[in-house]
Structure formats: C-alpha cells, structure tokens
Amino acid sequence: MKVLGIETSCDETGIAIYDSEQGLLAHTLHSQVELHAEYGGVVPELASRDHIRYLLPLMEKAFQQADISKADINGIAYTAGPGLIGALMVGASAARALAMSLDVPAVGVHHMEGHLLAPMLESPAPAFPFIALLVSGGHTLLAEVQGVGQYQILGESVDDAAGEAFDKTAKLLGLGYPGGPVLAKLAEQGEMNQYKFPRPMTDRPGLDFSFSGLKTFTLNTYQQALKGEVGDQQQLKANIARAFEEAVVDTLRIKCQRAVKQTGIKTLVIAGGVGANIRLRASLQAMMESQGGALFYPRIEFCTDNGAMIAYAGCLRLLAGQHEPLVINARARWPMEELSKLSC
Ligand code: KG4
Ligand code: ZN
Question: What is the pLDDT of residues 42-76, one digit of tens each?
Fold first, then answer.
C-alpha cells in the first residue's frame, strides 16, 4: 500500500510517500522558521497561509522523488490534530479533496502518535512493548506503548513542555528563534558546573514533569550574574545555557530510568523535537546501557515535524481498515488516550 502523508500542524509543511512493502519512497519539507523569526514565535495566521503556499509544490516534488504518479497512491494520511487549527485545516482540506478525486481512503492521524512511531521508520526498529519519551514544543510525556493505539500515559508535564522551556529560556537570554537548537548550540561552549540548577519534581515519587520553574530560575540567575563583574557576555550566556540544558536532560533521564524500573520494560524510545538534542540522546543511551536495555530514536530530521511519520502512522491505520468518511476533521486539542487500539 502506498500512502501519501501530509503534516501541517504547526510551522513545518511536510509531505511523504510511504510504501508498506518498500518503506519510505520520498519526503519533502518546508520549514517556516525564517517567516516567524522576526516575531520570536509562530504566528498562526502566517503559518496557515504558508502551508497553502508550499503544500502542492512539495507534493509534486515528492511524487517526482518517488517516481510515481498520483494514481499510484492507495491512501492518504494527514495530521488531524493536535495543533494550530488553521494550519491543520489546510492539510485536512487538501487530503480530503485529493482522496475524493483519486477515490482512495483518507485517515486523520494524531500528531503525537506520528512522533511516537517515527523511530519505527529506522532500522532496527524498536519492538513493542516500549516506553516512549515524547518531548516536543507542545507536549512532554512518558507513555507505556503496548502496540499501535495502546498508549498508557505514565506521566506528563504539569506546565511547560520541554521544548517550550527551551524556547522560552532562549528568549529570556536574548537568543534567536527557534530556541531549542540555538540554546543547545550555545551550550556547547558553556563550562560545566558554573551554576547548579534544580532538577524539578525528581525529589518526589511519580513520573510527572514541571519545567516552568527552570525558566524563572534561569532568568534570576542571569539577572543576578549581570549585577556582578561580567567579563564575556557570550560566555556567561553559554554557561547558563549549559546549566539549563544539563538540568532538563538530567530531569528527563531520572524520570525515564524510573519508568523503566517501574514497568520492567527495557526498551526506550525518544521522539519529538527535543529528541534531536545530542546531550539528551547521549545521557539516555548511557542510562539504558546501565540498565541492560536499549534506546531507539529517529534520525534528526524525523525528530522534528515531518510528513514521513504521518505517512507511516497513517499507513498502519489504513492497512487495518481504518479511515473516515468525507468529513474534514481537525482538532486543536486531542488527548492521545482517545485513540483506537489497532490489532496488527
Ligand atoms: O516536535 P516538534 O518539531 O514540534 C512540536 O510538535 O512541538 O518540536 C519542536 C520543539 C521546539 O520547542 C524546539 O525548540 C525543540 O523541539 N528542539 C530542540 C532541539 N531541536 C528542536 N530542543 C532542544 N535541543 C534541540 N537540539
Ligand atoms: Zn511535533
């Protein structure tokens, strides 16, 4: 089965073609980073318009890459939520219209399920059951995954998502947008142990997270440091960025280790934009090795938003016979526990 995947939930237009027998045939992406940079964050209306601008050209490019025509497509998968409603509607409308004209089924995919299954595009792919750490700009959660659609949330952020904390902290330090990768890059030049940041909610049982306090701690630390003798401003920011990153990574590692111990499941998957963080990967890798387990993650370009993960998740659901009638559905909010279990 050949499935066209469409991702337009936020600030990346992603298109991909996945074949259940041959694997990924094509994927194309347009990032809106430059468009939103001057505003320091995503402007929803601009995002929707840009998706309209890029969706069809990217689709043409994907068909060229895969060397197939539209008539070869057997199904269409699109991100139906959660995300920016206007942006979601662009992908949903295009997917439904194309599905009707080609007379093929279309399925609305949960964006976080896409992220969660993205490591399965790699080889070797993780086997069920596994623990998933989903760390993106909008979500931070730990889930026990028994199969497709069988997600038991073990813990989640009670306030900011990990990516959101990176983005907001970067803004406080006057760094560019998007904050996560910029802060991580600056942290590379930071010296270890210059500042000691807290590891929120690790001193009590449970698997929930809280990151908003770290952002305030960073601001206070920065303002306090500026009151004293500041030699090299850039080095000061790098040291603070390093301490912040260490705190987030350490907190995530402690909770993942706890989840592994609690469930006895020794396969851990990281997914979502913050999964691109090299220090996080290294820390979780070392932790899983010490537990006699294994860590899986997607290639960097499939950590952040992309069409491949949507094509893949959609393909599994379409193969299981799932699709929706001709309605254009998109949901800004969509709890992952509402997803139907897939027996495949
Ligand atoms: O999954 P994603 O592309 O979009 C959402 O679904 O939210 O994640 C984007 C988030 C942003 O907050 C971004 O700053 C963060 O992932 N991010 C990173 C890195 N690369 C992206 N955070 C830390 N380190 C990185 N290298
Ligand atoms: Zn995402």
Answer: 999 999 999 999 999 999 999 999 999 999 999 99
**Nearest-angstrom CA–CA distance, 11 and 97:** 22
Rounded to whole angstroms, the Cα distance separating 166 from 172 reads 10
Counted domains in the chain? 2
| Ligand 1 atom 3, closest CA | 304
Strand 140-147 and strand 23-31: pairing? unpaired
Mean pLDDT of the region 167-186: 93
Q: Which amino acid is at 207?
A: L
- Whole-number Å distance, alpha carbon 188 to ligand 1 midpoint, is 17
The domain that holds 183 is classified in CATH as 3.30.420.40
| Torsion angle, alpha carbons of 216, 221, 224, 229, to 10 | -150
Atom of ligand 1 lying closest to residue 137 CA: 7
Q: Residue ranges of the alpha helices (H) in 3-43?
A: 33-37
Instruction: Round to whole Å and give the CA distance between 227 and 290.
Output: 42
Confidence (pTM): 0.93
Other Cβ atoms less than 10 A from the Cβ of 44: the count is 16
Check pocket membership of 14 for ligand 1, CB cut-off 6 A: no
What CA–CA distance (Å, rounded) separates 165 from 337? 24
Give residue 83's region: left, alpha or beta (phi > 0; psi -120 to 50): left
Q: In 3D, which of 65, 76, 69 has the Cα closest to residue 1?
A: 76
234: domain range?
128-297
Structure token pair of residue 289: 């090795």
Residues 96 and 136 in one domain: no
Q: Which residues pair with 209 in a beta bridge?
A: 157
